[in-house]
Structure formats: structure tokens, C-alpha cells
Write a structure and sequence with these properties.
The chain has 199 residues and is mainly β. Helices cover 6% and strands 46% of the residues. Strands 1, 2, 3, 4, 5, 6, 7, 8, 9, 10, 11 and 12 form a 12-stranded antiparallel beta sheet that branches. 40% of the residues are buried.
């Protein structure tokens, strides 16, 4: 099967994420280091002939982001047009076709909705080094609440979030009358690094 109609739907939604970066109480917003921080969106397949499809790994670079340590909060934005398909088991040509479908009108529609944005609304400390962060994710022109689970220390934070495409008005891609299709649920993984504080 050609990759063009293949699954995924991401979006990177991804963008989503990070949020509990409070290593020191500075009282001022700190920048997220977009060069060292990584957001990965994982798209899973299902269906009778799912063995003929591909699961996808999508890189969603952080365009810009900040967090406040004294009053825990985070703002984060991803440019959907810069998302990349990282699948290792397909050709470069197939990766390009998968990306074209992902960014096209059937999935992210990045031409109309180029920005994915996350804004935290509440941060709950579970125990030392672990947080639950709730906030609003704007994706595909719609805004809905999501929950992030985060752990970390010393300026490095990792976590995960789960999203459903249909919550944001995205219908999961399917092929062959549904014999190969993308699951509605996506998994977002992120590793966030804070920029060094300036004196």
C-alpha cells in the first residue's frame, strides 16, 4: 500500500506538553530551550489488515515556550508545518507522502491551522519530582482540556499525555474500507529542557 493515505493523524498535537518546569523559585518566566527539548507523537494502527500499515513516530518541534516557577504555569506553541515523520522502516519518499497527508486537510490542515498551543490552568504536585498538569490545548482550530503527567529535576522534565483525534474534529485516517486504519488515541511523549538562567 502507498503511504499517502496512511494513518496518522497527529498533530501534533503534540505539541502539547511540558509543563512543570520549576527547578528554582525565581519569580519570573523562564524560556524553554527549543533546541534541546523534544516532543514525539506516536500514532498507532488497527484493523483486520493492520500488519500492512505503519505506526508512526512524529517529531513536533517547539516554536517557543515559557514557564513560571513561583506560580507554576506554562505556555507552549508548536508550528504544525514543521512537524516531521521519523519512521525508520519506510523510504524517504514514503515519509514525505505520510507527512503530506498528515499536514493536509484530512488531518491537521496546517495551512488553515498552523499553530498548536498549550496553556496550563492547574498544576498539582503528587510527590517530589512528579506533577499532574492540566491545561487547554488548541489544535485543529478547537480548544479542549488535557492532562499531562510529568516528572523531573534539575531543569530536565519528561512526561506523557494521551489525546483523541476526534475530540479535536479530526477523523482518523482509514484505508481499504477500514481494514487498515489509525487508532483515535495518540500518545505524546516529551522531554523538556529549560534554558540557562541569565544573571
Amino acid at each position: 500500500m502507498r503511504a499517502r493515505g496512511r494513518c496518522f493523524a497527529m498533530w501534533s498535537a503534540a505539541a502539547v506538553l511540558p509543563a512543570a518546569l520549576w527547578a528554582a523559585d525565581t519569580g519570573v518566566a523562564r524560556e524553554i530551550d527549543g533546541q534541546k527539548s523534544v516532543i514525539t507523537v506516536r500514532v498507532f494502527k488497527s484493523g483486520l489488515f493492520s500488519a500492512f500499515g505503519h505506526e508512526h513516530e512524529i517529531n513536533a518541534p517547539i516554536e517557543h515556550g515559557t514557564f513560571n516557577e513561583s506560580q507554576p504555569s506554562v505556555e507552549l506553541a508548536v508550528d504544525a508545518r514543521k512537524m516531521r515523520v521519523m519512521d525508520k522502516d519506510v523510504s524517504e519518499k514514503d515519509r514525505a507522502e505520510i507527512r503530506e497527508t498528515m499536514l493536509g486537510p484530512k488531518v491537521l490542515d496546517s495551512g488553515q491551522f498552523p499553530e498548536i498551543r498549550f496553556h496550563s490552568t492547574a498544576v498539582e504536585s503528587k510527590r517530589e519530582g512528579r506533577w499532574i498538569v492540566r491545561g487547554d490545548l488548541r489544535l485543529h482550530g478547537q480548544t479542549h482540556p488535557i492532562k499531562l503527567e510529568i516528572q523531573g529535576e534539575n531543569g530536565h522534565y519528561r512526561g506523557t499525555a494521551e489525546l483523541k483525534q476526534r475530540d479535536f474534529g479530526i477523523e482518523p485516517v482509514s484505508l481499504g474500507g477500514g481494514t487498515v486504519k489509525v487508532k483515535d488515541g495518540l500518545q505524546v511523549e516529551f522531554e523538556i529542557v529549560a534554558e540557562p538562567q541569565r544573571n
